[in-house]
Design goal:
It is built from 11 helices and 8 strands. It is α/β, with parallel strands linked by helices. It has a single domain, classed as Divalent-metal-dependent TIM barrel enzymes (TIM Barrel, Alpha-Beta Barrel), CATH 3.20.20.150. An 8-stranded parallel barrel has the order 1-2-3-4-5-6-7-8, surrounded by 5 helices.
């Protein structure tokens, strides 16, 4: 168990919004027993000096950095999809390039070898099929765990996915081109881009195509897969993937995990062991080289963070 506790990181998404000093933020996290932390996509410029001091003093090790980190000067809230590699807008693509490079440089500065990446989404002129489906689920007051028993949901979900798959034909070539630009930057800095699975139906790539998508990218040593347990479980509850089968398909490209649970109502970033995820199944896929990060809601208490750490330490031991 001590090995897991030594490896386990806590994401700053739990506490960065309520801190104004980066050193104090790190002290709080280290005070809970974490030797490593992930710098998430809510790190404002004002937090950077304190973080750098904490790293220089050896107070903490940075396991991973989440694009974009630090945030652009004008942004004061978590914004991982501020600029997307899937966009047709050339100005936005230039900004994605600029702030992705900034994240890679910052990762080198803090000694983090893995960068968690979002890969963009599809776009619709006449409204989002996912938003329409979510509105219907809300109106019907359906719980996430009950969706697959509802025939009308299945029909509407399939209709939405048909539109999403059609739209992905335009988005995916732009995403691939963006990563083909970014992977050489990662190679130059000797870091690895870790492409995260997403919870949104319209976020790319479509899960069934993920393995082929990664295989098509160059420089496999510098690009891999990052598994978010909560996001995969949300898709599992929608019937869009089987959680175990997806992990099996992606196992040879796995670089790390975001660990959190999903409630019966479908809320993620909850205390592991309190929701619908089978973490004993997750444990079967964890290897010594994987980065392990607790990614918890800022609504959770200190006691719930400690309970999450204890549970993961036991189930992954």
């Amino acid at each position: 168990m001590s090995d897991i506790f030594d490896r386990l990181s806590l994401s700053t998404c739990w506490c960065s919004a309520r801190h104004t000093d980066g050193y104090e933020m790190v002290e709080e996290m280290v005070g809970l027993g974490f030797k490593r932390i992930e710098l998430s996509h809510g790190i404002r410029i004002s937090l950077v000096p304190g973080i750098l001091t904490a790293v220089e003093e050896g107070l903490v090790e940075i396991s991973s950095v989440h694009n974009f980190c630090p945030l652009p000067n004008s942004v004061q809230h978590a914004a991982p999809n501020l600029y997307e590699p899937s966009t047709p807008d050339k100005r936005e693509l230039r900004l994605w390039d600029q702030y992705t490079k900034q994240t890679l440089d910052f990762a080198v500065k803090v000694g983090a070898a893995r960068i968690v990446m979002h890969s963009g989404s599809t776009w619709y002129f006449f409204g989002s099929p996912e938003a329409k489906l979510e509105k219907w689920i809300e109106q019907k007051e359906l719980k996430a765990i009950d969706l697959l028993q509802n025939k009308e949901f299945m029909k509407r979900r399939n209709r939405a996915m048909k539109r999403i798959k059609k739209a992905s034909k335009a988005s995916m070539p732009r995403i691939i081109a963006s990563y083909e630009r970014a992977i050489p930057w990662a190679k130059e800095r000797n870091v690895r881009l870790c492409l995260e699975n997403r919870e949104g139906m319209e976020e790319m790539p479509i899960d069934a195509n993920y393995a082929d998508f990664l295989q098509a990218l160059p420089e496999h040593e510098h690009v891999g897969y990052w598994h978010d347990t909560g996001h995969a479980q949300i898709k599992h509850q929608l019937g869009l993937l089987d959680h175990r089968e997806h992990l099996t398909a992606m196992a040879d490209r796995l670089t790390g995990f975001h660990l959190h649970d999903v409630s019966e109502s479908g809320r993620d970033h909850q205390v592991p062991g309190t929701g619908t995820i089978d973490f004993k199944m997750i444990a079967e896929f964890v290897r010594p080289e994987h980065t392990l990060v607790l990614e918890l809601s800022p609504r959770l208490t200190t006691e719930q963070v400690l309970a999450s750490r204890q549970y993961i330490g036991e189930v992954l031991a």
